[in-house]
Amino acid sequence: MAHVTLKKRPNSAAEDQWDPLAAKKHQSNKDVDDPAAALANSRHEFGEHGGVNMSIEASATFTVMEPETLQRMFAGELGPDRDFYIYSRHFNPTVLNLSRLMAALEGTEAAYCTASGMSAIVSVLLQICSSGDHLVAAQTVYGGTHALLTHFLPRTCNITTSFVDIRDYEMVERAIVEGKTKVLYFETISNPTLTVANVPELCRIAHDKGVMVVVDNTFSPMLVSPARLGADVVVHSITKYISGGADINAGAICGPAKLVNSLMDLHQGALMIMGPTMNPKVAFELSERLPHLGLRMKEHCHRALIFAKRMKKLGLKVIYPGLDDHPDHKLLKSITNTGYGYGGMLCLDMGTEEKAYKLMSLLQNYSQFGLMAVSLGYYETLMSCSGSSTSSEMNEEERELAGISPGLVRMSVGYVGTLEQKWAQFEKALSRLVEGSI
Q1: Secondary structure letter of residue 214 according to DSSP
Q2: DSSP label at 25?
Q3: E strand or H helix at 384
Q4: What is the DSSP string of 183-196?
Q5: Which residues lie below 8 Å from residue 10, measured CB to CB, with a gap of 6+?
Q6: SS3 of residue 176 by DSSP
Q7: Cα-flanking dihedrals φ and ψ of residue 301, to 5°?
Q8: What is the residue-level pLDDT of the chain in tens, covering all 438 positions?
Q9: What is the DSSP letter of 109?
Q10: How far apart are CA 7 and CA 200, in angstroms?
Q11: Which helix (H) or strand (E) holds 137?
């Protein structure tokens, strides 16, 4: 069989040799602090036949022209940097393209995408930590992450975690055991209490003791760039805001190229060995959604701020870091990227679970304000009572320590319909609740 070498259509980036994981190589210094500019400035992958969109490489395995080439690939001499691919559980060109975009978004040297947010978290922690190691984590984290740290890792890997109040820097410092603690883990904006992490200060504390910082930025893509503030690794549940359609499960690990390459190592790589592989068709779809992420986030945040202010005026107990009276308002303002707002998540503390349930039922079934569902980042408003849903993995004492009250309603504010239309629907449901009539 004759082998025809086709000259590739030039990319928007220069035609020099490129690192397949790199996203920052062709960015100017003035763009590096703006996620939207970084995305626009990243390598654009054209389709096989000159299409403006990239082609989908749906192959699970890849051919070579000479048998010796496979040996060199498995020895690590040839790889994606020279367009040599082994198997899509290792590197896939379409997934690699999305990964480069994620690295550009977060301002990291490299990234690679996974089948879910939890698979990204599990993989990076297992790559950094070994049996007997220790982590320090925020006491308020997503329930699935809490279960991983509290139950799964100690049982299966002998990896333990100390939970701390990340606002208490002395407590954080005391919890770090030199020589044993490998990771400080927290969420930029916590799920569900919306506590804001002082990323620069927490990174300083950790790095002074030789500890890596892993930050979950799922609640705040575009708003905050933890890696630019000092974090070593940024993880995402792409399922949420980045996808935006509540139709895809996906995750990402963004960090140093050395770490990302180690995750794909044929013998020791957590992603390679455990195989939480992203489907290239999913990667293609997600790469088409990233360019308008900034626009979507601005509208989520705009509506959340207005709703939070109006809810507060009605006398409701509102938790939203964009409000002046939120304890972390000034902190968030100091670390956000200009122009994106304060987040699309807000909480209403209704006091009791019964009252929270009644409000959510009215908002969905009476006024059509939103939907009772977990997750976030959808164009419809999604509502859940965190204590009995996304944080139910925590026991009552743990929820109390995390500040999760029984009546806490978490809202992911959507942007469907007009703002005034949705607000009228909220007021309609609230009036019915106050009247006590269902």
Answers
A1: E
A2: T
A3: strand 382-385
A4: EEEEESB-TTT-PB
A5: none
A6: coil
A7: -70, -40
A8: 333 332 333 343 333 333 555 544 444 344 467 999 999 998 888 888 888 988 999 999 999 999 999 999 999 899 998 899 998 999 999 999 999 999 999 999 999 999 999 999 999 999 999 999 999 999 999 999 999 999 999 999 999 999 999 999 999 999 999 999 999 999 999 999 999 999 999 999 999 999 999 999 999 999 999 999 999 999 999 999 999 999 999 999 999 999 999 999 999 999 999 999 999 999 999 999 999 999 999 999 999 999 999 999 999 999 999 999 999 999 999 999 999 999 999 999 999 999 999 999 999 999 999 999 999 999 999 999 976 666 666 777 777 776 778 899 999 999 999 999 999 999 999 999 988 754
A9: S
A10: 46
A11: strand 134-138
Q: At what angle do helices 280-289 and 93-106 cross, to 10 degrees?
A: 40
d(CA 236, CA 105): 11
The Cα–Cα gap between 358 and 368 comes to 14
Cα–chain-centroid distance for residue 13? Answer: 27
State the DSSP H helix or E strand holding residue 38, giving kind and residue range, or none if neither. Answer: helix 35-40
Q: Which two tokens stand for residue 262?
A: 């180690």
Query: 223 Cβ partners below 8 Å, 6+ apart?
Result: 297, 301, 336, 337, 340, 341, 342, 343
Beta-bridged to residue 189, according to DSSP, are 196
Residue holding tokens 């060199």?
A: 72
Residue 434, φ and ψ in degrees, nearest 5: -65, -40
H helices of 351-395, in order, are 353-365
Which of these, 172, 231, 161, 228, lies nearest to 205 by C-alpha position? 172
Q: In the structure encoding, which two tokens stand for residue 161, read together?
A: 């975690």
| Phi-psi category of residue 7: left, alpha or beta, with phi > 0 → left and psi -120 to 50 → alpha | beta
354/369 Cα distance (integer angstroms): 19
Task: Provide CB contacts within 8 A for 235, sequence distance 6+.
Answer: 117, 120, 121, 124, 214, 215, 216, 217, 218, 251, 252, 253, 254
- For 297, the token pair is 């986030």
- Stretch (H or E) spanning 164: strand 160-164
Q: Are strands 408-412 and 382-385 parallel, antiparallel or unpaired?
A: antiparallel
| The total number of residues written for the chain in this structure | 438
Q: Tokens for 168?
A: 């208490």
Q: Are 205 and 173 in contact (CB under 8 A)?
A: yes
Q: Look at strands 110-114 and 345-349 and give their pairing.
A: unpaired
Cis before 221? omega within 30: no
